[in-house]
Amino acid sequence: MSRKSKAVNSVGVWRINVVRLVFLSLVLGLGWRLTDIQVLNPDFLRNQGDARHVRKVPVAAHRGMILDRHGEPLAISTPVHSVWVNPQEINVDSVKLPKLAKVLHLNAKKIKNKINSNQNREFIYLKRRVAPETANKVKQLNIAGVALQREYKRFYPTGEVTAHIVGFTNVDDIGQEGLELTHDAVLTGVPGLKRMIRDSRGNYVGGGEQLKETKHGQNISLSIDLRLQYLTYQALKASVQKYKARSGSAVILDIKTGEVLAMVNQPSFNPNSRRGLRNSEYRNRAVTDLFEPGSTVKPFT
Questions:
Q1: Which positions are catalytic?
Q2: DSSP 223
């Protein structure tokens, strides 16, 4: 064998050894990485995955009911959905965004600006307490980053008949007037907490793990008799209209126990639709206003 052939063979062997060394280094490197991930630091990637897909979600507690002496409901809470968005996950240039704006009766440009101005947040409301059919339409759009949150909306079956007694709550279900305000601590529940998993589109899947039990608000029973309340309201309203009075109040008491069986005022308001009302219209005149005793004290003089 010539010297030239020996030199060629030596170079070939050297190259093979280099390839073997590189391959062995890669195998050792991968082995070390797998050992690091699976044995030495197994929690790192798990925590990273949980941070992206696992969320602690509050579970809404419904507010306690307000009932008359016979158990007739004067104030109840009905389940509704609110539409929210994660600005970090939604694509503001999506062709579905204008469709979402149309469903919610909102301006698409304003939605886009709201999302862009809250890029550091993971949760912002688009619209609170939407109708069930609206919630279904939002769900059907299946937009990544847009989701529904269950809440409760206060409803007053007796409307203006008991408005001044019962009062009302705001959009966050906090009492603002009447018994809703004075007994807010009793009526308000304590939200629960669940650990939920989200899919790649931001939707929650499965039932989740209960971390904190939901404590619903307590019911309140009044001495009011709804039948007498209706009759008294109709009589007072007719009298105010007949004599063209600016206002009026009427109260029925049980003379043996002192219980209030009916309490009405005119003018009244509908607590289910308060747009355009003035604060003075919320006033319970039978309780807050002062009147001269007049002839009622003559038997004592």
A1: 295
A2: S
